[in-house]
Amino acid sequence: MDYNEEITDEFNGVKLWWSANRTTPRTQQFSFYPGADEKRFYTLKFHKRDRQVITGIYLSHVLKQGKAIAADNRQRKLYSNGAGQGWLGNRSSTTWTHVAFEHPATFDTLAMDEKKKREIKKDLVTFSNGKEYYAKIGKAWKRGYLLYGPPGTGKSTMVAAMANFLNYDVYDLELTTVKNNVELRRLLIETSNKSIIVIEDIDCSLDLTGQREEKKKKKKKDDKNEEGDPISAMSKNEERKESEVTLSGLLNFIDGIWSACGGERIIVFTTNHVEKLDPALIRRGRMDKHVEMSYCRFEAFKVLAKNYLDIDSHPLFGEIGNLLEETDMTPADVAENLMLKSDDDDDDDEVETCLKNLIEALKTAKEEASKKAEEDARLKAEKEQKEKEEAEKEQSVKEDVTQDAISAKEVKDNGVIH
Ligand SMILES: Nc1ncnc2c1ncn2[C@@H]1O[C@H](COP(=O)(O)OP(=O)(O)OP(=O)(O)O)[C@@H](O)[C@H]1O
């Protein structure tokens, strides 16, 4: 609103007039900051019979709307943590740095089962409106999501869609650069409200899955190789400092030790190997919602076809639908085939070429999958045969030993037989 401009509003049948004003100071003192002494205010005019409505509900309605608009217009941020450099070039504590978050993914463009999408959106809305509820039940206002599925099924895309849906910032937490639990806690305390904290590929981020021994062995081997080269050993020493963040450190964070610093945070773990994760890490209550991101089926394909080709139907959809039901292809691979090669998405030939390419790719994938299944079956049969032969061999050795024992007993009982 400009100064001296007046706008009319209407609320529940009540008409009112807003105007923006300012006062300039009478004394003409010198100031470094032009306009520092200026007073700005809004004037609201309405009929006195409507006073109750205006002071009762209208003003809080305006404040609420204002906050919502400010939140919508807010430039959201994508934070990531990286190892900083100390004075001597050594590794110092990791800190958050940020860039503008501008990922275009939304739930509309996310290719997945519609029912699942609706369920997730409902869960997110319930969470973000749940301030009083969380306070009432005495729980930290946070929610954990575990997104699991093969690479390219849209786990990162889902995080972006969630952030855009809720208007939250995203903190991409790289655990391997966090020195220890103390540093983890500091980083988490520095996160702001209304944010999603993501740990991608949690199975690779930490020694939470029994890989610690492997790494120790490798380190021992490297140390041995560097024994004769102290300079390279010194320079690598800093670089190689492993994260000492522990499972219990991470569990404490999820359980809300840091909840004293406020709420409204969503924690997301993504993994390609859910079976590798420690059950303590992903039990319900910590990771409240487990979402499987799966291969592209027909319903998800239709979303991609709309996104990439701007079509809702096509005579080739039937064939594609059948192939997708029989073949496991990730949405990322399907999307790759649907990328137009020119910028003319009205070009019917181009659309058809894309769909035909996809059909070819699906047929190839189907053939490869069936070859692989045959090969797996052959290897399995071979293995079973080998195990059977070994068991038989073992059994025959056992029988020989028993026979020897019987013969020895007979010799003992009956004397030496010549
Ligand atoms: N479900 C999906 N809906 C829409 N686009 C998708 C989907 N899955 C994958 N894509 C497309 O494929 C690309 C890769 O997907 P994304 O990085 O989200 O997969 P991911 O499961 O996180 O993979 P990774 O496990 O390798 O990190 C995305 O940029 C997006 O264009």
From TrEMBL:
<dbReference type="GO" id="GO:0006950">
    <property type="term" value="P:response to stress"/>
</dbReference>
<dbReference type="InterPro" id="IPR003959">
    <property type="entry name" value="ATPase_AAA_core"/>
</dbReference>
<feature type="region of interest" description="Disordered">
    <location>
        <begin position="213"/>
        <end position="240"/>
    </location>
</feature>
<feature type="region of interest" description="Disordered">
    <location>
        <begin position="366"/>
        <end position="418"/>
    </location>
</feature>
<comment type="similarity">
    <text>Belongs to the AAA ATPase family. BCS1 subfamily.</text>
</comment>
<protein>
    <recommendedName>
        <fullName>AAA+ ATPase domain-containing protein</fullName>
    </recommendedName>
</protein>
<keyword id="KW-0460">Magnesium</keyword>
<feature type="domain" description="AAA+ ATPase">
    <location>
        <begin position="141"/>
        <end position="297"/>
    </location>
</feature>
<dbReference type="InterPro" id="IPR050747">
    <property type="entry name" value="Mitochondrial_chaperone_BCS1"/>
</dbReference>
<dbReference type="GO" id="GO:0005524">
    <property type="term" value="F:ATP binding"/>
</dbReference>
<dbReference type="InterPro" id="IPR003960">
    <property type="entry name" value="ATPase_AAA_CS"/>
</dbReference>
<dbReference type="InterPro" id="IPR027417">
    <property type="entry name" value="P-loop_NTPase"/>
</dbReference>
<dbReference type="GO" id="GO:0016887">
    <property type="term" value="F:ATP hydrolysis activity"/>
</dbReference>
<dbReference type="InterPro" id="IPR058017">
    <property type="entry name" value="At3g28540-like_C"/>
</dbReference>
<dbReference type="Pfam" id="PF25568">
    <property type="entry name" value="AAA_lid_At3g28540"/>
</dbReference>
<dbReference type="InterPro" id="IPR003593">
    <property type="entry name" value="AAA+_ATPase"/>
</dbReference>
<dbReference type="Pfam" id="PF00004">
    <property type="entry name" value="AAA"/>
</dbReference>
<keyword id="KW-0547">Nucleotide-binding</keyword>
<keyword id="KW-0067">ATP-binding</keyword>
